[in-house]
Structure formats: structure tokens, C-alpha cells
Amino acid sequence: MSARLRSLAGMARSLVIYRARPWRTAALARFYEGMLRPGDLAFDIGAHAGNRTRAMLAAGARVVALEPQAAFHALLARDLPAGATLVRAAAGPAAGVAALRVSRLHPTLASMAPGFAERLAAAPGFERVAWDAEEIVPVTTLDALIAEHGAPRLIKIDVEGFEAEVLAGLSRPVDWVAFEYLPAALDVAHACVDRLEALAPRRYNLARGETVGFALPRWERAAGLRAALAEFARDCRSGDVYARAEAAADA
Prior knowledge:
The protein is of the alpha/beta class.
């Protein structure tokens, strides 16, 4: 299969996964309504096919969506609803440019983390993934985005092993942060928790896989979250950590 056909097949795969189930976007919107109020600002770092951006918009938020992959940025530029500001960039610890490794057949897997592809090569679910393309992309920081667009109530980060580096570019607490965790790279999740705790005390919960809803019966402090990650990682399913500022629930 040619590189172009692989890229087209990969985009089609992502659209089927993230765009072919509109009822899931509605469920995500209801989920985000527990974090976002009408008019709040949210950052979608790693927007990909835009399903999370659309859900945040449906929840009444304004969204700044970052997507560095050229093909997916072009897709979003054509069809994101009003209320979204689209930026073709990745986020990191400092502004500049960087190499983004991509799997053409699985373009939801794109990472700037050094050695990430090699590290996950034997992990369940990654055995057949070929990281066969690279793009040089602009990089900004969360602090720079805040300076330009304002302080968000929610930051969602899904950047395949680069989440801690994204948070290194944030120097102030925000109410809500959501970041992906991978069972084969729990050290990245722990580094994210370390960074968030350095900014402000937080409570944590988890969403497993693509489940819409929290997995833990109560919000945990950092130690409880780390224990839950170790337990949940046994089934090899990725998911998202939600970090809530202690005052956010009442805001």
C-alpha cells in the first residue's frame, strides 16, 4: 500500500472511530457539563478528529483546539463549528518546532515523546503499529495559549506520551485538567500528577477506555490515584485521568 493510501485509510479509520457515533458526542457533552459552564473556555490539546472539541462546544464552552497534523488540521479547518479557535501546533515545555512521529494507518497515534514508538512496540494494542511518517510542527506552550486566549476552566491533553512535557509549559493552576494515561507508560501519568500537585492541591478520578463517566466511587488525592492507576493498568486499557482543583467542584 502506498504512503498516500495508508494516510487516507488512516484518516478514514479515525473518522469512523470518532465521527460515526454522534450519540457518543452527546454523551460526552453531558459529561463535560459537569466541568464546564456556558461561556467557559476549554483547551483541547491534541484535537485529532475533533470529537472532544465538538462535545465541549455542545456543553456551551468556547474551545481552543490544537492539532499539529497537517491532514487533520485541514479537516478541522473545514468543519469545526463556531465557537472553536483552531491552532495548527503542538504543545510542549517551550515554544519552537519539533518532530512529530505518526502512524499513517493509525494517525490517532502521533507523538513527540523521544523513544515513545520503540517503547510501546511490544505493548498490547501497539504490536502492529508502524510509526512510518514524520512531520516538523510548530510548538507552543499552555502559558502562551493562556496569554493569548485567556485562562481555561478545562485543559484536555491527549498527546501519546508527551503529556508531562505539555504540563511543563503550564505555570499556573487551572480548575480542571484531563490527560490520557497508558498502562505501558504509567511513569508519564505519575509525572503529570507531580506537575499538577506542584501547582495546586487536587483531587483525581479516572475514566477507563472510551467510557463516558468516572470509574472511582470518590475523588482521590494523589496517592489514591496512583494506586488506582496501578490496579487498572492490569487490564491493559488506556484511559483518562481527571484532576480537579479542590475548589472547582463548588465554583
